[in-house]
Amino acid sequence: MTAIEVREVVLHGSPRGSLRDFLEVVDRIYAGDRAYVRPLDQDIKDRLDPKKNPFFTHGEGAVFTAHRGGECVGRITTTIDREHLDRYRDGTGFWGFLDTVDDAQVARALLDRAEAWLRGRGMTRARGPMSTNVNEEVGCLVDGFDTPPYILMPHHRPYQARLIEEAGYTKAKDVLAWRYVVGVLNPRVARARDEIRDMPEVQSRVVSYADMQRDVEIVMEVFNDAWSDNWGFVPMTRPEIDKTAKDFKLFLRPEITRIVSIDGEPAAVAVAIPNVNEMITDLGGRLFPLGLVKLLYRLKIKGPKTGRVIILGIRKKWRHVRKYAGLSLFLYAELNESGRKIGMTGGELGWTLEDNGPVNTGIRTMGAKPYKRYRIFDKALAETAPAVQGAPS
Fold it and tell me: Which of 94, 202, 332, 383 lies 20 to 30 Å from 27, alpha-carbon distance?
């Protein structure tokens, strides 16, 4: 059997590693998979680049590809997040972007190399998939292979989870994605919306283009408070918030956002973003020469038909105040109505943790149904690494 070589991709001027291999191997892995949407190459390059991704102000990472018989057959990244380590002190590092052919040796070689990199930097546990940390794509798809992924959500072949388990990993947590159809609100949701609307101390508005930086800071401040007790939570840092504000300027639709204040104090937020994946299915990951024109036309002129709710949170201060129990339903209802007015037909809510009962109950009340499940895996790292072909001696 032909040996597997794992190569490190040095992003700037490497004579041996090739970022092109990392980007293009997915065409082989997902050939014939009608649900797969190849992400934009430029977006992946920017997210892997320490000079462009603010994650690297508090993290570090490496990029690897696997080769057999002269062909690229898989890829993986690995990262250490100091924000996570400062918060949890659990010696956990991460790996992500794991895509391989259906071959246990290929998956094992890539995971071994990622684990060796983490172990060499003092980590005692490996967790993944996470593209960089918990605030980007997470999980390996284990249910829901027949529908395309939404923006910033992963897609995998059905065999990928099995290969991860065969490499010694076990389930840490499942997360859910929920399908939602824009339509007429059910009586319970409509009643909750009206009750909140009628409260004189409650004000609701959309995120402002003119004050994008200010409003993104408000959104992330509420988010960091609302989700601070969630499993794996890591707060967004100032550079990441600044980058988010810059990105939102490009593609955010303010109509499908909400900032709710109580007596002038930000209390709850909801942000949905256009599902860019529905607009890039035919671009093959490339913006040039014509992809950018097509994307801008579809985004700005035709408008998105679907969106994904990426943030919804209520400050702890108000979360258990009985009077404001309908805040989450109010937020969902407002996004539903605004989405309908701009021609959106539905979207995705989440992800949410499988065991987050209150959040999942609220989503069900809105009429959404879970349609995809993603698994995050854990593995304790042995003190001694196995021999890995292509690893430095």
Answer: 94
Q: Is residue 323 part of a domain?
A: yes
Helix axes 238-251, 212-226, angle to 10 degrees: 120
CATH classification of the domain holding 329 = 3.40.630.30
State residue 71's pLDDT score: 96
Report the domain count for the chain: 2
Residue 21: inside a domain: yes
70 lies in some domain:
yes
Query: Quick check: bond before 178 cis, omega within 30?
Result: no
Handedness of CA 331, 334, 338, 339 (dihedral sign): positive
Residue ranges, the chain, pLDDT below 50: 14-16, 388-389, 391-393
- CA–CA separation, 267 and 312 (whole Å): 11
219-250: per-residue pLDDT in tens?
999 999 999 999 999 999 999 999 998 888 88
Do both 41 and 164 map to the same domain?
A: yes
Specify whether 206 is located in the same domain as 258.
yes
Query: Does 168 lie in the same domain as 199?
Result: no
pLDDT digits over 345-376, tens only? 999 999 999 999 989 999 999 999 999 999 99
* Angle, CA 285 vertex, CA 282 and CA 289 arms, to 5°: 80
